[in-house]
Specification:
Number of strands: 6
Order of helices and strands: EHEHHEHHEHHEHE
CATH superfamily: P-loop containing nucleotide triphosphate hydrolases
Largest sheet: 6 strands, parallel
CATH architecture: 3-Layer(aba) Sandwich
Number of helices: 8
Number of domains: 1
Structural class: alpha/beta
Distance between the termini: 37 Å
CATH topology: Rossmann fold
Helix content: 40-55%
Strand order of the largest sheet: 2-3-1-4-5-6
Oligomer: single chain
């Protein structure tokens, strides 16, 4: 088995429900490990506000927009070389697309087109070395969404989050066949130093889904 890369050379994806704290952790890890951070396109997302106002109308356009932006991020990782931390992976977009189909908010035909496009684009993407899944309940997700009070997210419903959570469970099981996954209980936040130690330990110890066990680093 070839030697594994040091953390400073890893491409780390941060996955999880809306409001989990992916951006905060990605920023902290980037600073702690000296890695560039690739953020989820939220502030400059031209479709997001319309998506939450009329989801069925803008579902397909929003998913294609996000797929394109995250593909650009993957290409930047390839061009720059070295590692990086990505705030939500391109693979997770399919979780949201499938949830929209399940809620009858995206046409099955549009979903098939989306999946075909993703399949073709995936031939030109680099996979993360590891995905860190921030596992939390839909109830905690809703609480954090409400705490950060983004206007565009004010209409998010609990049923939507519960269905997203179910789809995430299937996604994690499937993606772990291609990319090592660390599942971390994220009902309580952890700091970057602690997370970096956990990621390094679990990455070096395996190549499948691992439920990270916490041991106190300091009192």
């Amino acid at each position: 088995m070839p030697d594994k890369q040091p953390l400073q050379d890893l491409f780390i994806g941060i996955a999880g429900l809306i409001g989990a704290g992916k951006t905060t952790l990605a920023t902290a890890l980037g600073e702690h490990l000296g890695l560039p951070v690739y953020y989820e396109p939220v502030v400059d997302n031209e479709y997001l506000e319309d998506f939450y106002v009329d989801t069925a109308k803008y579902a397909f356009a929003t998913q294609i927009y996000l797929l394109n932006r995250r593909f650009q991020q993957h290409q930047e990782v390839i061009w720059r070389g070295g590692g990086g931390v990505q705030d939500r992976t391109i693979y997770e977009d399919a979780v949201f697309a499938k949830t929209l189909v399940n809620l009858n908010l995206m046409d099955e035909r549009d979903y098939r087109t989306y999946l075909d496009l993703f399949k073709h684009m995936s031939n030109f993407m680099c996979r993360p070395n590891i995905i860190v899944y921030l596992d939390l309940s839909p109830e905690t997700s809703m609480s954090r969404i409400q705490q950060r009070s983004r206007d565009v997210e004010s209409g998010i419903q609990m049923d939507y989050l519960r269905m997203l959570h179910r789809e995430y469970e299937s996604f994690i099981e499937n993606i772990a066949r291609m990319v090592p996954v660390i599942r971390v209980s994220w009902e309580k936040y952890r700091d970057a130093e602690e997370m970096a130690a956990v990621i390094e330990r679990e990455y070096l110890n395996g190549s499948f889904i691992r439920d990270a066990a916490w041991s106190p680093m300091r009192m």
